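pipeline/complex-builder :: batch 7 item 3
reading input block
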Amino acid sequence: MTIVRSTLSGLRVLLAFTLLLGLAYPLAVTGAGQALFGWRADGSLVRADGTPTRDRAEAVGSALVGQQFTGDAWFHPRPSAAGDGYDTLASAGSNLGPESPDLVAAITERRAQVAATEGVDPAEVPADAVTASGSGLDPDVSPAYAAIQVDRVAAARGLEPERVRELVTEHTRGRTLGVLGDPRVDVLGLNTALQAVAPALPERPE
Amino acid sequence: MSVTTSTVLAAGGQLLLLLGMLAAVHAPLGAYLARVYSSPRHTRFERGWYRAVRVDPDAEQHWRTYLLSVLGFSLASVLLLFALGRLQQHLPWTLGFTGLDPAGAWNTAVSFTTNTNWQWYSGESAAGHLLQMAGLAVQNFVSAAVGMSVAIALVRGFARSGTDARLGNFWTDLTRSVVRVLLPISVVAALVLIANGVIQNLDPHTAVATLEGGTQHVLGGPVASQEAIKELGTNGGGFFNANSAHPFENPNPWTNLLEIFLILLIPTALPRAFGIMVGDRRQGWAILGAMVGLLLVAVALTTWAELAGPGTAPQLAGAAAEGKETRFGLAGSALFGAATTGTSTGAVNAMHDSFTAPGGGVVLFDMLLGEIAPGGVGAGLYGMLVLAIVAVFVAGLMVGRTPEYLGKKIGIQEMTLVALYVLTTPAIVLIGTAVAVSVEPGLAGVQEDGPHGLSEVLYAFASAGNNNGSAFGGLTSGTPFYNTMLGLAMLAGRFVPIALVLALAGRLASQRTVPASAGTLPTHQPLFVGLVGTVALVVVGLTFVPVLSLGPVAESLS
């Protein structure tokens, strides 16, 4: 048996596998996934009021994917290295190493910025507020970061801080099964809930 | 992501949960695998399949024929994948992406064929749905199946006695690995992933207005079907650039654990199949013990490093949160990092380039070990068996008798093959790194000066040579220089060891099994497990200490 013959056998086997694994398998899983978990399979899209939808024309984004918020009336997500920030066509981390001068400078600058925006002591700014996530699309912030944003958001929307704090608690999830992951606050879910309680004045960034 | 006592306890609980899940399926899956590769019967589907592709499933192959079949199949894979990459723009479901450039298409073709899944491109901006499904996902299955087949051929070498070096049939092993093992588990895993939010559709990427009024693209793609086999086959090539850090690949802490479980599932079950097939389950336990021992050390060290967060930037930020997702936490990222580099997966749920210096050092060392803790599907088992032979050889030297393993004498020729195996990957990694840091196009891709820059290059070649595929992302590797060099490293790092393993298997199968005597070193006891683990650490340690000192060690001390 020569390499030519075995390559030809290989090609036949590979073409058969391509039909089975490259078409039949993903298409069957797509069919089953669409039928059983359609909303999830389409990307867990939500409308501006937080209700689920499968229609992209009605959606403001995915409940699972972080998006940019910069205005005072919104809870802000973490810094993002995906494109200009939360660009889903360019998911990425910064890949800066622990001794990188660029990263050190970025952290210092973000800490000062967040402290100024939230009117808190720089020491109160938690780690997730000054670091970019792995995907650049992190949908969550830590409860600590959400907590220091409450007063700003409440003031911008004319709400009692206590009411906003309640909403934060509603959108906080603990560890799965008590051991998996870290406690986290879903930023888009929280912002859609805020919008339902006290709509922000129309305000567009830039 | 602050670190408290509860964080540490949760990290421990997470690990126990993972080990519990693996333990629960270990025995049944191991027994099932042994049956899959021992049964003379073909299913009706398989009989039709063999007729359609015109191979004889019952023809016993000599090790050379087996190797030729592996190489022929892999060559066909590289050619088809190269063609798909180059011609992408002419195919349906391409989302308007253009064909890959020649060096890029070559790199990707080799990368996925060798189970490396090194990615120089971003999935969401370069690869259409058809290339992902019919090209990359197919290789995710079959490259894993090739690894399993080679491992089983080696096991047969030990199990058989006095044959004419026949090792079974590659086409049968390949087909059964896919249709009896990988495909059914993938279907179930894919559906579980979809239920948790991993997308599965054929839609394009569409721009929508965000809640605040910005613009963001809603992504589409058959992600879950690919994600399942990406982890199960220890492939690691992400649908999206951010890999398993991406919310659509890994939406919550539970899917994170599930993905780690899938990564470790087959590599930890194969030693059980090995024990059953050689007729002594204790031998399987010993191999598994060495694998899991090394893995647990890596998990402990990585978790400690990431939770403690040493280094200028982590200290300044308050935690090593750069490059990590909130939902997985520090411990969930550390556990994934240890699992993905201990196997040859290379999927990442956090950016390893941003790990702390000791954490990054551990995951790098984990890869340099040769992916045996517990290693990629198949590759981990044959890698560990080779080290077991080194261990009996070393022990034999100490007492001055011909070493034997599982009733096979380890003579000069066996040892030559083993020595070549052990030296192949380090040679690829060190020569590749040395070339890259000596020439202009190599240096051009390095993001940071000094020790971290060297770590980036070393990590890239360690990843390619060991068919891991994870990246210390700072390196700009999508250049013709790196695409070509890393492609060569992946190719040599995959097929030279496979050729040596099959040659070794052929020699072992043709030997008569000798009964154990009073002087035989028992290879199923903790002493031997410790010996194998030590051999692994010493071999890697001695080979890589100089370059590790210049990279991560220097960085840790600075």
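note: Chain B touches chain A through 129 residues (CB under 8 Å).
queue -> next item
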